[in-house]
Design brief:
Shape: globular
CATH superfamily of the largest domain: MFS general substrate transporter like domains
Radius of gyration: 21 Å
Structural class: mainly alpha
Number of strands: 0
Oligomer: single chain
CATH architecture of the largest domain: Up-down Bundle
CATH topology of the largest domain: Growth Hormone, Chain: A
Order of helices and strands: HHHHHHHHHHHHHHH
């Protein structure tokens, strides 16, 4: 099977995404390290993390609406330029000793808020850069590149740079955003979405009403709604597992503390492998059958993880699960990018992300309480059980071939 030729424009977008992800991987742990040097109050440190997690839930739909209103290439470049300014200002405050915990929280919130607009515009822009048949491969390679930049390069380097100078990770992050903005500007201009983004009569509507059209589209498409609900259920399990993974690895799998970084890197390797084969899986089996297979694979991988009592078997099972996660993300992204009208892509992608992510904090909280009451060992079985339920629920929805996608008979996006 010949690999799809993705072209220069895709390479520019890929390079911009990898550059931004590398900077993110430097900044995120540096924020936590800096917060820990400023205070030992766990509530204050947690507030910085929460500040960066709220915008996708609070502003995700709004970001999708503006991604469908504005020309996407310029929007992405402007967002990365603004993020470069925010991080550069933070680097100056850190270097001069004027950055407090509140400053870190504000910066984390602003960067995440801008990121919701960038993510929506990027999701909507990709189908204009590659052929429809190459979307699964294109999404997979994006995930592979960002996994390497974040998991293998940025995260390990963050601590080294922070130890040398606390402001250094933020300075490098600002440079990566600036580089990404320039790469995006090198793309050819893209068509500006129609006024109103698909609304009645092509007229501008109230922006929140436009944003809600993305939710209506997802809710009205049987397959997209099923995939979105499956993603939400999956994230309930994944977030709970990730929230307790350190304790699970140390106490249940008997991973030595000094080897935990290597154990966690196994999941990154698995995710990278999944990203690289996503396009081939879609081409071989079709998107919907592949999505069903991925859910079954992940359920079995989690069952194996729950049964494991050794670092090696647990690490292999976790890597297999991570591979399934990246294949799932690549396939559902490609499916939506092929079947949603261009003027609605930003809003539909944002709606799927908001619904899918809403369960994550719930899963993390439940796992924390359950781990306190019963120990962390049952968390693995709970995650496998949730995936089994998700797989059973999505099995019928995802049945059939890609050509049998159910479409609306009414005009798209009407209020």
């Amino acid at each position: 099977m010949t690999a799809p030729v993705l072209g220069r424009n895709y390479r520019l977008l890929w390079s911009a995404a990898v550059s931004s992800r590398f900077g993110d991987a430097l900044r995120t742990p540096a924020l936590a390290l800096l917060a820990a040097t400023l205070t030992r109050d766990p509530r204050a440190i947690a507030a910085v993390t929460v500040a960066g997690q709220l915008p996708p839930l609070l502003l995700g739909l709004l970001g999708g609406a503006y991604a469908d209103r504005w020309e996407r290439r310029r929007t992405m470049a402007a967002v990365d330029g603004a993020r470069a300014v925010v991080v550069a200002a933070l680097a100056v405050l850190v270097a001069t000793g004027r950055a407090g915990v509140a400053t870190l929280a504000v910066a984390a919130f602003l960067l995440a808020a801008l990121g919701t607009l960038f993510d929506a515009a990027s999701f909507a822009l990709l189908p204009s850069l590659v052929p429809p048949a190459a979307l699964a491969s294109a999404n997979g390679r994006l995930q592979a590149g960002t996994a390497v930049a974040g998991g293998f390069l940025g995260a390990p380097l963050a601590g080294v740079l922070f130890a040398f100078a606390a402001a250094l990770p933020f300075t490098v992050d600002a440079l990566t955003f600036a580089a990404a903005a320039l790469l995006i500007l090198a793309l050819p201009p893209t068509p500006t979405p129609a006024p109103g983004g698909g609304g009645a009569g092509g007229r501008r509507q109230w922006v929140w009403r436009e944003a809600w059209e993305g939710v209506r589209w997802v809710r009205g498409d049987r397959v997209l709604w099923g995939v979105t609900l499956a993603t939400a259920g999956s994230n309930l399990a994944i977030s709970g597992l990730m929230a307790t993974l350190v304790l699970y690895a140390l106490t249940v799998l008997r991973v030595p503390a000094e080897a935990y970084g290597l154990f966690a890197a196994g999941a990154v390797v698995g995710g990278l492998g999944g990203a690289l084969v996503a396009g081939r899986v879609a081409a071989r089996f079709g998107t919907r059958p592949a999505l069903r297979g991925v859910l079954l694979w992940q359920t079995l991988a989690l069952a194996g993880f729950a049964m494991a009592r050794h670092p090696l078997t647990g690490g292999v099972a976790l890597a297999g699960f991570a591979a399934g996660t990246t294949v799932w993300n690549s396939l559902w992204s490609a499916y939506g990018q092929r079947h949603v009208p261009p003027g609605l892509l930003g809003r539909v992608g944002a709606a799927q992300r908001v619904v899918g992510l809403a369960s994550a904090p719930v899963g993390a909280a439940l796992a924390g309480f359950a781990g306190q009451a019963y120990g962390v060992a049952p968390v693995g079985w709970a995650a496998a059980g949730i995936f089994a339920v998700v797989t059973a629920g999505a099995w019928r929805t995802l049945r059939g071939k890609d050509s049998a996608v159910e479409r609306r008979t009414e005009p798209v996006g009407r209020p």
